[in-house]
From TrEMBL:
Keyword list, A-Z: DNA-binding, Transcription, Transcription regulation
Name of the protein described by the UniProt record: GntR family transcriptional regulator
Positions of the HTH gntR-type domain: 23-90
Top-level lineage group: Bacteria
Record-level Gene Ontology MF annotations: DNA binding; DNA-binding transcription factor activity
Annotated InterPro entries: GntR_C, TF_FadR/GntR_C, Tscrpt_reg_HTH_GntR, WH-like_DNA-bd_sf, WH_DNA-bd_sf
Amino acid sequence: MSTPDSASPALDVSRRAPPARRITSATQIFDMLRAEIVASHLPPGTPLQDKMLIERFGVSRTPVREALIRLAEIGLVDIFPQSGTFVSRVPVKAIPEAVLIRKALEGITVEKAAEQATPERMGPLEKTIRRQKVAAGLGDLDAFHEADEAFHAELSELAGHPGIWTLLTQVKMQIDRARRLTLPVLGRMEQVIAEHEIIRAAVAEGDAEAAKTAMMHHLNAVILDVDALKDRYPDYFI
């Protein structure tokens, strides 16, 4: 199986297995593995052996199996009874539908945010963009992604509908897996920041139409990235 360039910080093998610490529930194991899979710290095809996970998390087999079953149910791992459990490949066919859902919901959200915006309420968005700039300058992909997520969550909060972002975090998992592969590309983080600044400016001006247009442009970039990623990392997609 081919793998991305070893120089890519998003896929640094040394970051795939954090130091062992006591984990007490299947939900905690699920949350940690889910985050590592979405971040590509555990790339497609990575074996998830029960023994390894039991030792890592310091638990019995039961919570490990429960976590893996939940990950399989949301399409992040494949369980083969005779072969083992592996991180799944990214299903390309699922991405356009997820993008449509995200565009529909975030289009409404950003319009509402523009209607509700006041100078006093713009602080969190501006602070988050500054965080992204710092992360981009340091080449810290995890911090950049966290700030990216925060930007969209804050728009949902500003709109008065924080539950929309909670729903979208479930819908967009496969989008995120593909998108994380694009962040090491030269200029990609700066492009995302520029798109966020255009969205922020439109929201601050109370221009709902311009804010929605900027958000659609921002989200459309995901599909273009996937086409190039399929050629570069064919074993990561199905």
